[in-house]
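Handout, page 2. Input:
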Amino acid sequence: MPPRLPSRPTRLPIHPRARRIPCHQCRYAATAAAIVPAAAIEQMTTSVPPISRYAPTQPPSHKPPEFRKSQLHRQYTSLLRSTPLMLLFQHNNLKSTEWMGIRRELARALRKVDETRAAEGRSDMDLADGIKIQIIQTGIFASALRVVEYFRPELQPEAPSHHPSDPATQSSTPIANISPTPDDSRLTHGLSRKAHDAVLDKKLAHALTPLLAGPLVVVTFPTVSPQHMKAALSILSPSPPAFPAPTRRANPGYHDLAVQGGLQKLLLLGARIEGKVFDTEGTRWVGGIEGGLDGLRGQLVAMLQGIGAGITNTLESAGKNLYFTVEGRRAMLEDEQKEGQDTAKGDGSAKSG
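Output:
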């Protein structure tokens, strides 16, 4: 059998009508497709923002930000800067059931204060939901306190006004070369190397430092309210008659065994109010202000009015004394003049007689 030989494929005949004929319209269409349209006005005036070397919310830190200690430090720093009123307590191994009971009774007492103010027509301060009680890490809290008290970012060199990750920043905008390392001196946040070096030698300078020992609990208030402070002290650290504890009939849950056992393990140390440190007596004095801030304003207005009235009386008394003195002297001179005239008349009548 002869071997098979590969046969070449035969070309099919091309139909005369199927031959490629140059088309002027197709040539114009290809030329038109090759033309690139002009850029929009927005693309010509703005450009793609440059790539940031670090996220604006995560700048380089002195310590790794992924650690829990670093995040607690940031949290405590923000808490100290945003909380005008803070109560400090020392606790001793409270159980979870005791914490639950204490938080429940504290929230109930604070809501009762809000209801009382709403009944009086003063519902502008509903603070029950914003008042929190939490356990803190003492060492990290002390470090955050030193940063808040002694580190002044406004005195440090200003950061660049145009952040690289801002979409409004142009690619041609000159941006300071802030390297993504904590050694850069222009980084001034709470965890920066600058903040760490600024407070390194001030461990015993703050008045609150002696109280920062052992396990601590803080009660934070979003604003200064002596009425809410009094309610919190009446629950957490009662001391009659100024801060009496709720009676069993009014609040039977307060006298539960778990709540009373937890309260015996809490000790009031002091308070930080508007950046000032108060001891136990000063804390109770602030909490005992009658009528809250409104009552304090009323006392201040009455005091100023009393001072003004006293000054007015003093000035008026000087003028009155001068007036009475002058009038008395004038009356005396008139009497002497009358007596002289009478004496002269008597002498004249005696001579004529």
